[in-house]
# Entry
Amino acid sequence: MTLPAPADRIQKIPRYFFDIINEEIRIMQKQGIDIFRLDIGNPDLPPPDFVVDALENAARNPRNHGYSGYRGTAAFRQAVARYYQRRFGVELNPDTQILPLIGSKEGIVNFCFAYLDKGDVALVPDIGYPAYAAGVSLAGAESHWLPMRAETGFLPDFSKIPADVLQRAKLVWTNYPNNPTGATVGLDFYGHALELCAANNMILCADNPYVDITYDDYVAPSPLQLPGAAEYTVEFMSFSKTFNMAGWRLGAAVGSAEALDRLLQVKSNVDSGHFAAIYEAGVVAIDNISDEWLKERNAIYQRRRDKIMAVLPEIGLSAETPRASLYIWAQAQEMDGNQYVQEALHKAHVSLAPGGAYGPGGEPYVRISVSVPDTRLEVALEQLKSWYRNR
Ligand SMILES: Cc1ncc(COP(=O)(O)O)c(C=O)c1O
# Structure
């Protein structure tokens, strides 16, 4: 018996890079090889104990085991509103301007379903997080690539977008602090992006999971800080990196009430919300994780960042020091990023992410993550040095 052919849309998206690499690594691990994972941005440190305790307590409450509603709990939405007030000075209506997500990746893809049809265009960064282009393709629409290159600080040049593209474009995706380049912006960047949106009837989709992973006194902004921005902005916030809660799959879409209502229309037909205990513990995280905790956690990442930066010349890589995010975006000097990643994996047993996984513009690069324990990071860097010296 043969199965029917899969949907055409499946041909339009690649297999997810980390699914492929996980499989390759699993096979190597089965052969007894210890692989050092500097590829994925997966926080190695836990959230504070009191957040885990809150989850445990909430899980023991029998009332928390039913469906929790399509808009999450009011308490959770109110907590996200308090976070925006405290962190950005932004007032949001928790009932209409905040919608919980099962991780921001889910919201990114479902938002494309809410707004894009065949013939529509979304402006998508090349180099960027792969879910934007995947969401656009799954919705049957077209991505217009915005080149992000070192010469422009990995920022898009909005003035180069052809008029006919702007006419069909409905969404523009931004992501600062950026994965994978580590690029950062000031509020003025969002001012330009919002002018573009206002002039062309587009929604600014600001993906902002690294907003609280910053170094060297840099403070990352939210576009919602600009007056009137909430009318045509949807920001995707996430607990994954801010609070070391990536596996909890918790985030929120925040901003335009009208756009969130469209997103809810998709989501309420696709998912049935989160486990209520996760929302409850999420409230505890937002209200009780202190700025000091965030600073100490970021200092750990910053120390690792500096360790990696110091070694780059010895391993054939060069990079600007990032002021934020979990990544060092390094250009390979003597080969392309993919070859570098393959050799590093098989000869040094260190896994890195190839830049090409983030768009064609990323091919000369590799991405190195700081979310790996210090002791393992030190061994991984030694193994890279020894491989590179002896090749
Ligand atoms: C730029 C960017 N956006 C979104 C996500 C997804 O985060 P979440 O865990 O909230 O789905 C990631 C995860 O790595 C990311 O790097």
Q: What stands out?
A: The mean pLDDT is 97. The longest strand covers residues 121-126.
